[in-house]
DNA sequence: ATGCCGGGCGAAGCCCGA
């Protein structure tokens, strides 16, 4: 079995203790991290390698930054999302590794927030999503198990937030954002968590403000999208709320999926 | 609720997040 998790940690330095605890307790085979907020040279590589992980980093000073941690060694395929050479923001890192479930291509994605919606930030978000769709379309042609995981900054449907009216005009919930997310899925990618959990009220983010966590006023914006070859291996997906409950927590919590070697996946289906 | 938290940077207060 191969466990693949994604977590926006909101600074790897501020969250190193929690991340190490989670790696030891949950033990993902592949962990996709976002908002590490540091450059490659200052990423706490040794601490994480000492827990048995290979580390890949696409970092940036102060903002953004993504990483991949994997128990199995990997090749780095992309350190930026293709399609806009001037884009310097570190929001995409793609690797290929051989796991117990076979060769898997995985990408750590930190999709732009896009607020406020009447600014270039929103235009940048939508351009970034178009670029992601084009790249994801190309990956499908490889006919490999692909996992696109990360903070997509998109609330896909009404049931993915506690009060849709509050989010109505937010870049995370605007029709343009949701439409682009839907176009991405409709290429042939499966939302791993939704496959097992059609019910509303499952969240991955709770604002630090206004007691959002205590009131369970959250949104589901962290996703794992699987190519058909990966979806065929999918045997489970859950949100791990424990890290969000701790002191000095990230405002996001991990979400994971489990892929099985093909003969086990067939038996479970 | 466009900043009530919380992090980075850098040493006070601003930028940014969702």
In short:
By secondary structure, the protein is an alpha+beta fold.
Describe the structure.
The chain is an alpha+beta fold and 269 residues long. It has a six-stranded mixed β-sheet with strand order 3-4-2-1-14-13. Strands 5-6-7-8-12-9 form a six-stranded mixed β-sheet. β1, α1 and β2 form a beta-alpha-beta unit. α3 runs parallel beside α5. It is globular, with a radius of gyration of 17 Å. The chain starts with a strand and ends with a helix. It binds one DNA strand of 18 nucleotides through loops.
Please describe the structure with a list of short key phrases separated by commas or semicolons.
alpha+beta; 6-stranded mixed beta sheet; about 270 residues; 10 helices; 14 strands
Task: Give the helices and strands, then pairings.
Elements: E1 2-8, H1 16-25, E2 30-34, H2 45-49, E3 54-58, E4 66-70, E5 74-78, E6 92-99, E7 102-110, H3 120-140, E8 146-151, H4 164-167, H5 175-186, E9 190-191, H6 192-196, E10 205-206, H7 212-215, E11 218-219, E12 222-226, H8 228-231, E13 234-239, H9 242-245, E14 255-259, H10 262-268
Parallel strand pairs: 1-2, 7-8
Antiparallel strand pairs: 1-14, 2-4, 3-4, 5-6, 6-7, 8-12, 9-12, 10-11, 13-14
Helix pairs in contact: 3-5
This protein binds one DNA strand of 18 nucleotides through loops.
Termini, distance in Å?
15 Å
* Strand residues, percent: 25-35%
Mean pLDDT: 96
Number of strands: 14
Say what oligomer this is. single chain
Strand numbers in spatial order across the main sheet: 3-4-2-1-14-13
Q: Find the structural class using helix and strand composition.
A: alpha+beta
Spatial extent as radius of gyration:
17 Å
- Fraction of helical residues: 25-40%
- Tell me about the biggest sheet? 6 strands, mixed
Low-confidence runs of at least 5 consecutive residues: none
Principal-axes geometry comes out as globular
Number of helical segments with 4 or more residues: 10
N-to-C series of helices and strands: EHEHEEEEEHEHHEHEHEEHEHEH
